[in-house]
Amino acid sequence: MRSGNPALKQDTFSVPYSQRSTDVMTLNGTVNKCFISGMILLIAAMFVWERFFGQAEPVPPMGYIWGGSIGGFIVALVTIFKKQWSPYTVPLYAGLEGLFLGGISAMFELRFPGIVVQAVGLTMMVFIALLMAYKSGLIKATENFKLGITAATGGIALFYLLQIILGFFGVTVPYIHESGAIGIGFSLFVVVIAALNLVMDFDFIEAGAESGAPKYMEWFGAFGLLVTLIWLYLEILRLLSKLQSRD
Questions:
Q1: C-alpha distances in angstroms, 171 versus 14, 60, 164?
Q2: Rounded to an integer, what distance in angstroms lies between the CA atom of residue 169 and that of residue 174?
Q3: Which of 13, 81, 164, 244 counts the most CB atoms within 10 A of its CB?
């Protein structure tokens, strides 16, 4: 099995038989952990949002953006390498990412009023649509499907990494971040790839439940899904900003 999500790999749910117990991962348990993580993220994001829009003197969001992104990245690495710590690290990751998303969302909302509601709505619609398509068998996570999405996700990650490196030297990639046809087309492509990663996340979580993974893997499954949803939301936010810039 393959997944474009770096948090979910082939041996993610592989557990020695001697370490297995009757207290195992279930789909319902993972859903509950996803809900809890999502609520923590939402509360943290709303806290930053209120600090920016709900006060007479708005608090600049850059501190939350940098603190949330750097802290979230460190906690994500710890979670990936220490899966058994997931019950503690995943809620912390959700809170840090909530601070980051709250700050980013506030900045986009300031420039494009109403864009955050649209991005959140589209993200949830895509999530529900793909979940229904997966459960109905309309979309199946075949080996060729996984290979293609993994390759595309890796290519996008390398491209973004190259952009960061070039940025240190004052070099920018033309057209990609502009509101022209190339920029919008690129964002649409990335949104599609991010959305299709959800299908593989569903497949891996289901596989973990069927294989009798330990209970803490419910939190890790929620973590993997949260990573993809955050990526999808940011890409939709970026796409909508390009579309509104054309008006």
A1: 43, 27, 9
A2: 15
A3: 13
